[in-house]
Amino acid sequence: MSEAGVSEQERAEADMLRVSNLEKRFGGIVAVDGASFEIERGTITGLIGPNGAGKSTVFNLITGVYNPDAGRVIFEGEDVTGLRPYQLVDRGLVRTFQISRELSGMTVLENMLLAFDDQLGESLWRTVVPGVRRSIVEQERALLERVWETLELFEIDHLAHEDAANLSGGQRKLLELSRALLTDPEMLLLDEPMAGVNPTLEKKLLERIHELRSQGYTFLLVEHDMDVIMNNCETVIVMHQGRVLSRGSPEEIQADERVIEAYLGGEI
Amino acid sequence: MTRDTPFEPDGGDGPGAFLLNADARPRWLDDVVIIGKATLVVYGLFIGLGLAAGLDFNGIVSTLQQVTLLATSFALVALALNLHWGYTGLFNIGIAGFMAVGAYTMALVTAAPDATFPGLGLPLWIGVLAGLAAAALVGFVVALPALRLRADYFAIVTLAFAEVIRLVYNSSALQEFDLLGVELGTGGGQGMSFPNLRNTVSRRLMYVDGDPTAGPSLVGRPFLAIGDALELSPSVVEGWVYTAVLVVLVAFVFVVITWIGNSPFGRVLKAIREDELAARSLGKNTDRVKIKVFMLGCAFMGLAGMVWQGRRGYVDPNLFLPIITFYIFIALIIGGSGSNTGSVVGALLFAGLLFEGPPFVQRIVDATFDLPRPPTVYDGVIALGDLDPMPLLGYAVGELPNLRFVLFGVVLIALMIYRPDGILGHRNEPASPLDLTKERPPRERDPASPEGGESDE
């Protein structure tokens, strides 16, 4: 008994994220019906499934946008079920959105600077006390250097002064990803990061994601483009009707009859 | 700076060159220039009209004082609203209520204990502090439940709350009441009296110990000297001193709100305005930020309630009708929401041209021409049949103070069509303590420039 308990704990520590028996109902519709899966540290995992399978709801449940009706979310061995989005970001769990949520009336620089956690100047009194204000200015200069580094890495530094509203779809995705990085995350949840991105930018985005993974970041992607999933993820999780239908390597998933049936709408 | 220095179109580098070159001018100086221009427009108009009407010098100076007082009062509230609506996107249409809380709290704290409607009889400065605190506290109480609502429902809650506050002060139940054994009273619909803020403040500043017979104080001396030299009446000088205090208050609030806006905190405000979920997903506790900023704006609104509607040492519920809120919105829309300079310019133009202008024109026309004043518009229209436009014109002039409201509407519609962002709303106010527009990526920086020196290659 005790041996099983220890190995359970060890497994939990190796996992970045564990989701167990998540449930969410909207009125009479059961969007997520007991979904359970684990994400290993330092991997890229793909979450796929036909429309209405509950992928986005699972994302929202993990990131605190919705509270689950039942089930647990364990992040780095800690129960984070029901925490608010900003609390999850503090712990290193950061997401991007299917329809990118760049802050359109703000410039790219402002968007990026917003991401840093615990900025001195985010407390109201520091912004208005003359002597203390100097420390904010100094911190801002230091942060700005990191912003420029990241913008150059993502090759969008030439857009720094543009309003985010003027960016193309792909550039917005790059902005969202680079902005998410500045929050100092452990794990990034990307909701359809390739939607509306042209092939050149897509390649660039994927290169960045692989580079970041090799630096130790963990990724969970929801994506409809099967090529992207099969060529880039170590593990693929397939959802269907609010549950996890299958989990395995891309090859295993491609050979799984049930997955093919789910996509083709057959009975299972 | 000597006379033989040739004019250099791209600025030169002598001191004062920034005055000529708009690009080199620091932002705050730009703001001062814009506000100065708007003041000149309004003053020019009133001086011109005053001269045309044959007002004497004292009368013109007094008129300018009244216009300035109203403009600064509007500016104070417009700045507070800009913090709520322009920066954070909080659609607060309960401004009048928060002003009422400030003014009534001051009244209750400072009114004499033996007055008809008694107060605590404490000094004015305690009253002002109490008013600020009370307005912020009421802001907190409103914010807690209301900030969970979507923008439009939030607006409805603030409007309803403001009306509740006004009706509470109007209620005869609170005309006189007992609070923990202390007799207090708001006077209900009759309103309540308390020490006159305007006179107390201006006399405190102008005379030794606030006593006109004890001689002028250090601050009062220049004012009284100018007043004497220009042969102004003492009451006009006192009015100007109080107005000057309001100008200083507006400048203070302007700087505070600008600093808040140009900071990481202001960046979070801007992000909340643009997309609150995105801000939360970047780790910002938006609820706490919204509550803080709402309370601060409400405190400024309470301050405006005290120094504007409460300045005469008398408050009643009719001073805080919802229409005040909408005046402020018009001022901010004219100036451009999101811009502090726009808030002040909008307040100046609204108070001067739209609000005080028409009644002033009416007074002048009345004094200069002998127009008939028919009792109804029909008499005017009927007279048109006899090809006599005078009765209709006279009627229109007589109704100018009411025709203002038509003017407000026309101006708003014209703005929506031709300048939906207001006069200065298009200006990008960077949400950073640094001027981000001047920042360059490290590889583009000039190696000779002081900041870029070490980071090149």
TrEMBL record, chain A:
Similarity section: Belongs to the ABC transporter superfamily.
Function: Probable component of a branched-chain amino-acid transport system.
Protein name according to UniProt: Probable branched-chain amino acid transport ATP-binding protein LivG
GO BP term, pick one: amino acid transport
Segments forming domain ABC transporter: 17-266
Alphabetized UniProt keyword annotations: Amino-acid transport, ATP-binding, Nucleotide-binding, Transport
Matches recorded under Gene3D superfamilies: P-loop containing nucleotide triphosphate hydrolases (3.40.50.300)
A GO term from the CC aspect: plasma membrane
Gene source species: Natronococcus pandeyae
GO molecular function list: ATP binding; ATP hydrolysis activity
TrEMBL record, chain B:
Keywords in alphabetical order: Cell membrane, Membrane, Transmembrane, Transmembrane helix
Signal peptide coordinates: none
Region (Disordered): 429-457
Pfam families for this protein: BPD_transp_2
Main location: membrane
Biased composition (Basic and acidic residues): 436-448
InterPro entries: ABC_transp_permease (IPR001851), LivM-like (IPR043428)
One GO CC term on file: plasma membrane
GO MF assignments: branched-chain amino acid transmembrane transporter activity
Name under which the protein is recorded: Branched-chain amino acid ABC transporter permease
Organism of provenance: Natronococcus pandeyae
